[in-house]
Structures are given as structure tokens and as C-alpha cells.
Amino acid sequence: MKTEVDNPIRTTFLPFALPSIGEEEIQEVTDSLRSGWITTGPKAKTFEEQFRRFVNAKHAIAVSSCTAGLHIALTALNIGVGDEVIVPTLTFCSTANVIEHLGAHPILVDVDENFQISLEAIEKAITRRTKAVVPVHYAGQACDMDVINTLAAKHGLSVIEDAAHAAGSEYKGKRLGTHSKATVFSFYATKNMTTGEGGMITTDDDRLAERMQILSLHGMTRDAWKRYSATSSWYYDVIEPGYKNNMTDIQASLGLHQLRRLESFIQRRKQLALRYQTALKDTPELILPTELPDRMHTYHLFPIRLRTDLLAIDRDQFIIELATRNIGSSVHFIPVHRHSFYAHKYHYRSKDFPVAERIFSGLISFPLYPLMSDQDAEDVIHAAKHIVRATRRQYPIPPYVTGGLCNK
Ligand SMILES: *Cc1c(COP(=O)(O)O)cnc(C)c1O
pTM of this prediction? Predict the structure, then answer.
């Protein structure tokens, strides 16, 4: 590739993602370690209470991961063998894996141009066996929950939200967490807030909350002694074979402080996103993410799409070019239908997911996290523009050659 003079390369590598762990988090973890209470205890309870209040839900259940939370929510809604659950193909594999674990079938559907589950595709995929739909609030921007809920109600389906990217995100002025039967958040290291590994389920449904709580810890109920004996707190009863998916106080120590800082994290993410949007809006080779009305986008990700019809290199090469300029990046996600397990078991074909395929072919997530400086963002912008300039096609591929499948 042609090199140009104005190409000062960063001297250090900019990682794709880094968590913002402060001194308070470290102190709080140390406090847990010294207290002797290192598994689920008072801090996990407090974290649940604070998160519950943050999203204004009736219940919050802290769990070991978002994956575990999705599994528990689906189990508690009695999703089981032979049932069908509709999920978008442009998601992390665990959204589909948990459905498979239950003996149910993840029915993958296409997404729209905003990376969100396609409403028409949901409607087309509904059968007599369909029990639920799991919209994913991709990148931290809420799906159209009113439309999804209306559609689900019409067909008697449960809605469980995969809000792994979306702690703090809003839909129609209300934070996510109460827009459906159950909402599941992730506190994985790269997400908007982190407990290392961890997740939270929120719901307004009392009975569902109780069952999810019990399922998260072996199926044990501590209230049993009240009913069956006069003995005290050592007694418990197992009312169904639950899971070991509780959150520890060590994780909650992180969560308590991360939740307090979440609003400032989101503000910083939005500032950086705005910087990208402003600096790259006149680069037609890159399609930038759009903000939908009635949403507060928290920018867990900044996914751009390459116009591969205008560039001489493809997505994979673009990522390598970024790396040679010391810029980390990633791809969210390899559509689930492309993973060999799902492709083989369900005979999914790429042509069944034209939008997800077209998006995926040009998809790159730029680094975006609160620890990034303005200069870091400028380095990403500079590198991206430089790559575009150096690889711009002199003669763009006309749409009749690409069959209209270029990234427009
Ligand atoms: C990260 C992620 C998950 C899984 O979260 P964990 O807390 O790591 O289990 C689920 N869905 C999506 C869309 C994700 O990005």
C-alpha cells in the first residue's frame, strides 16, 4: 500500500477495550476479602437493591453472567424441549446457546439496517411452537419495544430482553429493565459497567422473580423452614434442580461502584461517539451508526460498516491495517447462523439473512471506552481516514456487479 507523509503512527497499541477500575472498586474488593464474606452476601443484596432502583424495577437478581441470567429467565418462563425462541442472528453466541441448553430451538432471524431484530422477520418466523422472542439492544441502543411487545402479545409470546450492552440505555424516556417480562444485563469486562464477570436480571413480575432467585442458587428456598419445621436458618428445601449462578460479594464490590459511575461512563462514551460521528461523517466509505428517535444510546460499541464497493480492501484487511497503525478493533458479531454448530444443525444459509450478511461483510467495532483520551479517538480517526485514502477504489464497483449487495 502507498504510504503517505502525514501518517504518524501511534507509538503504543490502543487496545480495543479496557475496563475503568478505580481505587474505590479496589478498596471495596479488599474490604470483602478481609471481611471473610467472599461469596453471595450483603454486598450482592445491596447491589441488587441499587440496580433495581436504578432501572426502577420491582426486582433485580444478581447472577454470575448475562448468559446465566438469560438461561434462568428462559427456564423460569418454562421454555423447554421442542419450544422455539426467536433471536436475531447478529448477536453473541450465548443468546442462542442458552436456548439450545434447554432443549429448545433458537430460531435465528435477520436484522434491519440498525443492527436490530427485524420486526417482519419475527412475524414470519412465528409458528405454533414459538414461545418467546429475545430482542438484543445492540451496541446499547434499545429496540422498538412497543412494537415488539404488541407483536408478542398478539401471538402470546414472552419477551426477554438481552440488554448485555445496555445498562443505563433508555427507550421512550425510561431506562431498560422494565419493558418486558425480564431484562438481562451483562457486567462482563468490556461492557458499559463491569464486575469482571457478572449479570443482572430485572423484572416487575413477583412470581417470576421468586422463581429466578431460587433457580440462581441450586433451587433452594430458605422460606421452607417456615412451612415445614420450627427449626431456624440452617434449614432449606430444594424445590427444583436449580443452577449455581449466584453473584459473589467480590463481584458486587465492583458493581456497587461501577453503578455509581455508570452515568459518567455513558457521558464519556457519548462524547467519544460524537467525536467519531463528527470527524467521519464526510467519509462516504464508512457507514456510521445512526441514533434512532426516542432512545438514549449508551454506545457500548461504535460499529462502523465499510463500503466495500468503494474500497480496494475488505473488512479483514482493514482490521489488519488498523492493527499495523496500533489501533485495536473487533467485530460484533459473527452472525450466529455462520457458526458451524448452528449452520449444521439447522441448515441455515447465508442467503436467508441478507441484511446481517451485508452488514457483517463490512462490520468493524472501533475502540470506545471511558478510559480513552480525546487523542486516542483522534488516532483512530486519523488511522481510519488514512487507510481509506490509501485504498480508495478509483473505479467503484457498480451495484449491478455486486447484485446490490455492497454496503450502502
Ligand atoms: C456479552 C454478551 C452476552 C453475554 O454476557 P456474559 O455476561 O458474558 O454472559 C450476551 N449477549 C450479548 C449481546 C453480549 O454482547
Answer: 0.95
